[in-house]
Design goal:
The chain is mainly α and 289 residues long. Helices cover 79% and strands 0% of the residues.
């Protein structure tokens, strides 16, 4: 892995982890599904326009179209849509921790469904990841965490893991920015239909909301997604996924610094265990590939 890939991977981890904090600010002042639909429509249109300016083509391969539609529905509409709704009652740090278990779910599914070799290190990593998550969830539930909101986060991360498994290798062939823009438009259209049927628009305008929305639209929304596709196609999905082991720590740290969310001793212990588990699973999968 070269220096440029490492730098981009670290940037992706920071951008991805910060999305939960900015989302928490947005949903406290605006309808979550409508806000997310607007974000995706704006990000998607900008992404497509930039891709066209760079001479990227609408003519995607069948695999790329499959990836575009699956990611648009599973990652943008389901995963992020459910997380935005959940974060009306669930703290950003808890949502980030749940979402960070995605590599563990992918590792377990690859081992159990696709007979991918994991090895003893990977098995220990899966056990550690599950144990750390149980520690955090137990402490948060005892502290009064909203169970419905938590369940939405869990369903969301399962949808993201499914999308990750379903499109393995399907994004090769170039046109990365065009794929990013189109899959955001797919998510925006789906969420827009849901928002029109379920939400009433009422927004408590503030400079914090404006900054959070712009940041979410352009940084985690557009830049992080493009960096992820670039990483996957440069170093492969397994090596790129290694950067996810930073997400539990970064997610709770950013939420604590910006939102002032409280972190208990069990949160810290659980985050450390989950981080180690994710790292072990990804390292084991790389060794066995």
């Amino acid at each position: 892995m070269d220096i440029r890939a490492i730098a981009m991977g670290l940037a992706f981890a920071v951008m991805w982890s910060s999305a939960f904090t900015s989302a928490r600010i947005i949903v406290s002042a605006a309808p979550p599904v409508s806000a997310l639909a607007a974000r995706f429509l704006i990000s998607g249109m900008i992404g497509v326009l930039i891709a066209l300016a760079l001479k990227q083509s609408w003519r995607l391969t069948p695999g790329q179209w499959r990836a575009t539609i699956i990611f648009g529905i599973c990652q943008n509409a389901l995963y992020l849509g459910l997380n935005f709704v959940a974060m009306q009652t669930v703290e950003a740090s808890l949502a980030a921790i749940i979402a960070s278990t995605m590599p563990l779910l992918v590792g377990f599914a690859s081992w159990s469904l696709f007979s991918e070799r994991v090895g003893m290190l990977g098995i220990l990593g899966l056990v550690a990841g599950v144990s750390g998550t149980i520690i955090i969830m137990g402490a948060r539930i005892d502290g009064g965490a909203d169970l419905f909101g938590v369940s939405l986060c869990v369903v969301g991360v399962v949808a993201l893991a499914f999308a990750t498994l379903a499109v393995r290798g399907a994004t090769s062939g170039g046109n990365y920015l065009m794929i990013v823009g189109l899959q955001m438009l797919v998510g925006g259209v789906v969420l827009g239909i849901v928002a029109a049927a379920t939400e009433t628009i009422h927004v408590a305008w503030s400079w914090q909301l404006a900054v959070a929305f712009l940041y979410t639209t352009f940084v985690p929304g557009l830049a992080a997604t493009f960096v992820w596709f670039w990483l996957v196609n440069r170093i492969g999905a397994l090596k790129a996924s290694t950067f996810h082991f930073l997400n539990p720590f970064l997610g709770v740290s950013i939420a604590a610094m910006i939102l002032g969310e409280h972190l208990g001793i069990w949160d810290i212990i659980g985050v450390a265990i989950v981080t180690a588990g994710i790292f072990a699973v990804q390292l084991s999968r790389q060794r066995n590939t």
